[in-house]
Design goal:
Elements: H1 2-14, H2 62-71, H3 77-84, H4 89-92, E1 101-104, E2 109-114, E3 117-128, E4 134-152, E5 155-160, E6 165-167, H5 169-175, E7 176-184, E8 190-199, H6 204-214, E9 240-242, E10 245-250, H7 259-273, E11 281-286, E12 289-290, E13 302-303, E14 312-315, E15 318-322, E16 329-331, H8 336-342, E17 347-350, E18 356-361, E19 364-369, E20 372-377, E21 386-387, E22 392-397, E23 400-408, E24 413-417, E25 424-430, E26 436-443, E27 446-456, E28 462-465, E29 469-471, E30 477-483, E31 488-495, E32 498-505, E33 510-512, E34 520-525, E35 531-535, E36 539-543, E37 549-554, E38 557-558
Parallel strand pairs: 1-6, 8-13, 10-11
Antiparallel strand pairs: 1-3, 2-3, 3-4, 4-5, 7-8, 9-10, 11-12, 14-15, 14-38, 15-16, 17-18, 18-19, 19-20, 21-22, 22-23, 23-24, 25-26, 26-27, 27-28, 27-29, 30-31, 31-32, 32-33, 34-35, 35-36, 36-37
Helix pairs in contact: 6-7
């Protein structure tokens, strides 16, 4: 027990309170009803790489046994049978390798603590928790784990080790794969991704379906919904794949679903299992009996909604979409562009319908519709406002991270509290599906970037923001942050060596982009997952993840599309 508690403590320090807990491999098994036998799972590698680690070498000392055990974490075959050979017989079956993954950065060191005890010191760069949720360490921290030893038949074996496995980044990316679980927004207009990481093995489809039925990650609860009736589980211990069709057998709880919910259930399963290469369709049964789903192509919900490929800009008295190369602006119609231009904006965001906008300037924040505008907030030091597609303009103050205000388009205010840490709020932006928000904060330790779920009342009025999840941010002085697509966000910081731009997948990994020419002043999401960057000379640059290319567009203000 002491070693297990110690492991959880060090991971809490290393990964901002993220503990190493179960990466669940088993679907729920019913406890009542008729007995039905399922197929035995042959959990084979599907990544193209199947590690076969070395077994213990006779005569090895404690250090060699420890390093061999850690290395054997790459071999998941037969429930980590090779790794268990390094363990004492009384402990081998107690150790749970699927309790989580610690991803170490660089080499680890081994030191002696006592006659039968060694310490293993590593720098944890990320972890995957009980439900396949990936958390990157914002600042990798050196931590120490303790392993105890005993002799069996004249050979050293590990008598106690923390649950879970430790992998290098290269090994992790070789044997784990990223998959998105999909849940609906409360209006059922969008499917929202919840990124998870599972072993790249033939049982992945079972793990995805089981995780989907278990519901969204804690930080998304209240912001998204599932169409599966409460209590629905997998009836058997496996999802089988027959000629490209995933056969998903559910418990009888699923029979409570309405006809419309049955269509949505199939859509959630189909979208979530689409990342499995061998799956092209889904068939649902309930305790082995037919599960009638109305003939329909799907719920009609959007996945990863896209925007106009042309940058949205304000330049002089023109506001609209700028054509790359020619730099000509197609102005927003119905007087909306003229109304925005007349406010001399320092920032603005346009609704997906193109019928409403929110504008920030020296006099506050304005809601603009057609040929009229309404000032909703005249507070000093406001950050660039955001607009959602449920009728609310979001306004935050740089001096207060603990609350934002969601204004109805008629100006009615709704204060929304947060649990964000203190600092200077730089950016607050709502995702294109209106279910999540990001917040970029400048602190004494540099920029901090968070994502939160948006909780709403039945009339879609925002009532709260879920627990903030910290993700990797750019370094330097915070400039801005933006949603790039339905799962990626990007942030910009100004350093002595230029503009630092970091792109992060929420629930996934991050990457630092090449530095752009010039000083970045604003960032926005572009079409097809690209990023748009405005520099201090007004140039608009574009990147899809590699270097930056000139668009030929210039802007006084780079607008945000939804």
């Amino acid at each position: 027990m002491r070693a297990r508690l110690r492991l959880r403590h060090v991971l809490a320090v290393a990964l901002a309170a993220v503990t190493l807990v179960a990466l669940s491999a088993c679907a729920a098994i019913p406890t009542d009803g008729p007995v039905r036998s399922g197929q035995t799972i042959k959990d084979e590698s599907v990544s193209g790489i199947d590690y076969r680690p070395y077994k213990p070498v006779p005569g090895s000392d404690q250090t060699a046994i420890l390093r061999g055990f850690i290395a054997a974490g790459t071999g998941a075959a037969d429930d980590y049978a090779v790794a268990r050979q390094f363990l004492a017989s009384g402990f081998s079956e107690k150790w749970n390798p699927r309790r989580g993954v610690t991803i170490r950065d660089g080499n680890a060191t081994v030191e002696r603590v006592g006659d039968g005890e060694l310490s293993y010191t590593l720098t944890a760069s990320a972890a995957v928790d009980a439900d396949g949720e990936y958390t990157q360490a914002v600042r990798p921290t050196t931590t120490t784990l303790t392993f105890q030893f005993t002799r069996e038949h004249g050979e050293w074996r590990i008598a106690y080790a923390p649950d879970g496995i430790i992998l290098s980044p290269v090994n992790f990316e070789s044997i784990f794969q990223q998959h998105a679980l999909y849940f609906f927004d409360p209006t059922y207009r969008f499917l929202v991704p919840d990124e998870r990481w599972f072993l790249a093995r033939s049982s992945t489809s079972t793990r995805i379906a089981s995780a989907l039925l278990a519901g969204p990650a804690d930080w998304l609860k209240g912001a998204v919904v599932s169409s599966f009736p409460e209590g629905t589980q997998l009836s058997l211990n496996t999802v089988t794949i027959d000629d490209g069709t995933a056969l998903v057998d559910l418990s009888t709880d699923a029979l409570r679903a309405s006809s419309q919910d049955k269509v949505r259930m199939r859509e959630q399963l189909s979208r979530s299992l689409a990342s499995v290469a061998t799956v092209s369709s889904v068939a649902i049964t309930a305790e082995g009996a037919p599960f009638s789903v109305p003939d329909a192509s799907g719920s009609g919900a959007q996945v990863n909604p896209d925007i106009d490929a042309r940058p949205l800009v304000a330049r002089g008295q023109s506001v609209g979409y700028a054509a790359p190369a020619s730099d000509k602006i197609a102005e927003l119609g119905n007087g909306l562009g003229d109304e925005i231009a007349g406010l001399d904006p320092s920032s603005f965001a346009l609704s997906a319908s193109g019928t409403a906008a929110v504008v920030g300037n020296d006099d506050g924040v304005f809601v603009v519709r057609s040929q009229q505008h309404l000032r909703v907030d005249a507070t000093d030091r406001l950050v660039p406002p955001s607009i959602d597609d449920l009728g609310f303009a979001w306004v935050g103050s740089s001096t207060d991270t603990r609350k934002v205000t969601a204004y109805g388009l008629r100006g009615d205010p709704h204060t929304v509290s947060t649990t964000l840490p203190k600092g200077e709020l730089v950016s607050f932006q709502v995702s294109r599906d209106s279910t999540r928000a990001l917040a970029l904060i400048q602190t004494n330790d540099g920029p901090s970037l968070y994502v939160m779920g948006i909780v709403r009342a039945s009339d879609r009025t925002p009532t709260g923001l879920g627990p903030p999840v910290r993700v990797q941010a750019a370094t330097g002085d915070a400039v801005g942050a933006a949603w790039i697509n339905d799962s990626d966000i990007a942030s910009v910081g100004q350093t002595a060596n230029g503009s630092d731009v970091v792109r992060t997948t929420v629930g996934g990994q991050s990457s630092t982009l090449p530095k752009p020419d010039g000083r970045a002043t604003a960032i926005a999401g572009g079409s097809a997952g690209s990023m748009l960057l405005r520099t201090s000379d007004g140039s608009v640059l574009q990147s899809s993840g590699g270097g930056w290319q000139t668009t030929g567009v210039t802007a006084d203000v780079l607008g945000v599309q939804r």
